[in-house]
Amino acid sequence: MARIVIVDDEKNIRRNLAAFFDSIGHSVRAAASGAEAIAALDDEPADLVLTDFRMAEMDGLRLLEEIKRRDPATVVILMTAFATVESAVAAMKAGAQDYVTKPFTLDEIRRTVERALELRGLRAENRELRSAVEQAPMLETASAAMRRLLDTARQAAASDATILLAGESGTGKNVLARQIHQWSPRRERPYVVVNCTTLSEQLLESELFGHMRGSFTGAVKDKPGRLEAAHLGSVFLDEIADLTPALQTKFLRFVQEQSFERVGGERTIQVDARIIAASNRDLEGEVAAHRFREDLFYRLNVITLYVPPLRERADDVIPMARWMLRAAGLRNRRPGLRLNAEAEATLRRYRWPGNLRELRNAVERAAVLCRSDEITPDDLPDSIFREPRETPPIVAAGAAHRAPSLEEVEREHIRRVLAESATLEEAADTLGINVTTLWRKRRRYGIE
Ligand SMILES: Nc1ncnc2c1ncn2[C@@H]1O[C@H](COP(=O)(O)OP(=O)(O)OP(=O)(O)O)[C@@H](O)[C@H]1O
Ligand SMILES: [Mg+2]
Asked: Second label for 163, Cα 20 to 30 Å away, from 64, 112, 223, 386?
């Protein structure tokens, strides 16, 4: 059963079609004009709209655009008396699923409608599958610190308390922020993300707080801000350290009073939005350097969650990589992909300065490039072989006054790894080269 709206200014056609679709089990509403159809849709959304092309006032094409603007998922089928190529093209361009030429038999129109509904179902399924694959975060962890963090996050999600997410770039702060919203009682309400880095101060102010027409060049009409859009839901302020002093002040007031005025506006707007903020910079350091308002920091610092870098969650690397690979496989239509033992050993050894983002990129790349279903070290980016985990920055001996040369760095690094390894095999493994190469290099650099 589908919800169908039938729009035609000719009473007989409208009635016949409505009775017919009703008789085959659909829930049908009839409208005599575009305006009536819109009113019906505002009242209750529909799966499909079957509309006449030529109507007084709002024609089928305008109605189509109006429907798509409201909900792009609604299927629209146009009925036209003149099957001109132009009208058909225009209709398809505007997003019509299909069109039928009058006169048609009831059987014809039934088949067209059923086909369109079937397609819509497939699309929705696809969308669901895709979003499940793209958005599902991996919440299992072998790291005690990460488990504690997730527990706290879940607990904090239940309240309206402000949450501050700290941690290196790529550790998953954006993913966690969305998850907190999903865990919260506001999950059915809007989740709004504002990145404080990407816009100029003026644009960011209007983006956040909205503006009134004429308040600056380019403000051609009144526009609500993102905070208003987040009403009853959550707002995620990403890279909060980048807020300029003026915006910090205005935002502080919002945090304290849940109210603000639009740019150029007089009316005070009240918004109930849960605040989640994130920064990969050390906010306390920013406060100490007088770049970030101390009072705003304390307002935000109610519950602070420090997301650990991947190198401190070493046991999560492989399960996370497998998880990401499954998602990448589905996305790239290669469901059978797996990492072979050497590839996993390589991933385990690396230091992951770019954290989960870097891991994801490496896995995605491998999923696209690998020739067979088995991913080998050859499919991984070169950078992963260069920087093993838990090795402090290298300073070559005697290079205090100038930067060390590549050879000096390599020599020093090999020397150090050899000193820390039980066997030559182990050292070669750590360095990501084979034993023969290591043996040769050792001789060349005269390392014992
Ligand atoms: N729990 C998770 N499960 C699966 N993938 C994750 C998870 N957390 C993060 N990722 C992946 O890592 C990438 C980086 O995460 P995210 O953008 O949340 O990092 P970030 O901490 O916000 O980084 P930045 O500070 O640079 O903005 C995401 O695109 C996502 O693919
Ligand atoms: Mg981020």
From this structure: 223
Q: Do 3-132 and 144-306 have matching folds?
A: yes
* Entry field: residues in the chain: 448
Q: Do the beta carbons of residue 282 and residue 241 sit within 8 Å?
A: no
Burial class (CB in 10 A: 0-12, 13-18, 19+), 138: middle
Q: What is the CATH number of domain 311-385?
A: 1.10.8.60
Both tokens of 66, joined, read: 């109006």
Q: Which ligand is nearest to the CA of 143?
A: 1
DSSP state of 187: T
Atom of ligand 1 nearest to the CA of 138: 3
CB 138 near ligand 1, within 6 Å: yes
Centroid of ligand 2 to alpha carbon of 278 (angstroms): 7
Give me ligand 2 centre to Cα 174, in Å.
5
For the stretch 283-299, pLDDT in tens is: 999 999 999 999 999 99
- The top-scoring range by mean pLDDT among 251-260, 324-333, 378-387 is 251-260
128-137, 236-245, 358-367, 401-410, range with the lowest pLDDT: 128-137
At the fourth CATH level, the homologous superfamily of domain 144-306 is P-loop containing nucleotide triphosphate hydrolases (3.40.50.300)
Domain range list for the chain = 3-132, 144-306, 311-385, 406-445
Q: Of all protein residues, whose CA lies closest to atom 29 belonging to ligand 1?
A: 357
Q: Select from 3.40.50.2300, 3.10.20.70, 2.60.120.280, 3.30.830.10 the CATH code of 3-132.
A: 3.40.50.2300
φ, ψ of residue 366 in degrees (nearest 5): -65, -40
| Residues measured by CB to lie within 5 Å of ligand 2, the ion | 173-174
Residue 72 CB partners (closer than 8 Å, separation 6+): 95
Shortest-distance atom of ligand 1 to CA 279: 25
Residue 77's Cβ-side half-sphere holds a number of Cα atoms within 13 Å equal to 25
| Rounded mean pLDDT, 67-75 | 86
Nearest to 338 by CA among 308, 310, 356, 318: 318
